[in-house]
């Protein structure tokens, strides 16, 4: 029992600090990526079709932690799209019920782990597919492609362009 409880204390290792320059690069990437998606959604598509809450969390990973395995392109794109497919399937099968929401999140995690494409915002995309309301539900099986797939591709393009402008950054680490 002592060993079990001891694990909960964490480790006493120093936390890495982010310098102001790195924080500014992260800001530039996140601002540019979200601005592109929001502009395309409102100006070109005349609606908020590409704006999804999980994109905020994706922005944190690909712009502020681009070295993370969860931020690599295959994880971002396939983890999100596969999870969105799971979410739509759960909604189609069980509606917007608590069990459907729990299944969407848990099955998307299972699928991402089995396909080696874990991207935490993917589970949010699955949950949004079930709990997102009528505007998401009417997209049906298009939801994994537009907004999820298209939005991820746009953010990845910006991440590749902006992250590689900084001399000390390299993105992606792997495809």
From TrEMBL:
Q: Name one Pfam family in it.
A: TM_HPP
What domain of life? Answer: Bacteria
Query: What residue ranges are annotated as transmembrane?
Result: 20-42, 76-94, 141-166
Which positions fall inside the HPP transmembrane region domain?
16-172
Membrane recorded as keyword: yes
What keywords appear on the UniProt entry? Membrane, Transmembrane, Transmembrane helix
Task: Tell me what this protein is called.
Answer: HPP family protein
Recorded source organism is Vreelandella andesensis
């Amino acid at each position: 029992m002592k060993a079990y409880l001891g694990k909960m204390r964490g480790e006493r290792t120093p936390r890495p600090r982010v310098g102001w320059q790195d924080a500014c690069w992260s800001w530039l990437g996140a601002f540019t990526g979200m601005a592109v998606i929001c502009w395309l959604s409102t100006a070109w598509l005349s609606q908020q079709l590409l704006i999804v809450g999980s994109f905020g969390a994706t922005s944190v990973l690909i712009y502020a932690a681009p070295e993370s395995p969860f931020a690599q392109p295959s994880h971002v794109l396939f983890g999100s799209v596969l999870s969105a497919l799971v979410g739509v399937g759960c909604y189609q099968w069980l509606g917007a019920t608590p069990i459907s929401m729990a299944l969407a999140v848990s099955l998307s995690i299972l699928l991402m782990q089995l396909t080696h494409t874990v991207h935490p915002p993917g589970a949010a995309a699955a949950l949004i597919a079930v709990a997102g309301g009528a505007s998401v539900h009417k997209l049906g099986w298009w939801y994994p492609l537009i907004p999820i797939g298209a939005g991820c591709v746009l953010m990845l393009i910006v991440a590749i362009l902006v992250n590689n402008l900084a001399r000390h950054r390299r993105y992606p680490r792997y495809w």
